[in-house]
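#structure-requests
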Amino acid sequence: MYDCNHGARTSSPSKRAILKGMVALSIAAMAVGFMAGAAPAQSLLDKIKNGETIRIGFSNEIPWAYPGTDNEPLGYVNAMTMDILKKLGTTKVEPVVAEWGSLIPGLQAGRFDIITGGMSILPERCRNVLFTNPIDQDPTALLVRKGNPEEVHSYEDVRDKGLIFVTGSGWSSVAAAQKIGIAEEKILQVAGLAEVVQAVKVGRADVGSGGYYSMKSVADKDDSLEIADPYTRPQNVPGIPGYAALAFPLDQQEAVDAFNAVLKEYIGSDEMMKSVAKYGYTKATLPDSGVTAAELCKG
């Protein structure tokens, strides 16, 4: 009778040798795979120098950074970023558009490599990202309905008159409003610029606040709105005036150092001013000389 288990119970010396060889090869392959997996990831600066595509993350913040047709990266921060990337080794960028409040989480999650949204350097943000040195300054402004019916000229006016104050979630104007003493229930935080404008237009809020250039660009295009004039900006409040910069993941100090080295010669240069002029950036927008990210991160 044929024993169907016979072949499973015994094997020849040659079969055992083959089996041992296969096991050895498998162990070797696993070791190689482990070593490959343990190899350090390519740094962002290496990717730039190798001419690879760099993902830039931004929201819809005019004139800093905003999407055009097919998400084309527009705005003066994007223009500056592409100039600097070219100097460092790449001309390839992939724009990733996200809501303002999702920019830092998106950077941390690896959705993009650099935040180009015109983000102000604030101490609380410095715990989550690395900033380059400043690329601009922005004094902020108040957006009101035409004629300024509530006669608002400062954050203190908003506080003292008990008005509804709208601004973007995560913007520096939130912390400013809180420090000035505007009641929490009077502070309306929304997704971004479009929502700030709409809230003021329809009367959900009495006053909107944000960057001067954003507020002015809105008022210039909408006859129902204006920016408060005169305007007394908050004093001794971190983030006002705002100094915007590019933001990087916490493990990319080498890339930040490389960007800062380029910025020393690039900021205020004829090349830079030519790239950013169409977005309203002027000599008055340049950051104050000597102001650094390290200083601003201290508060």
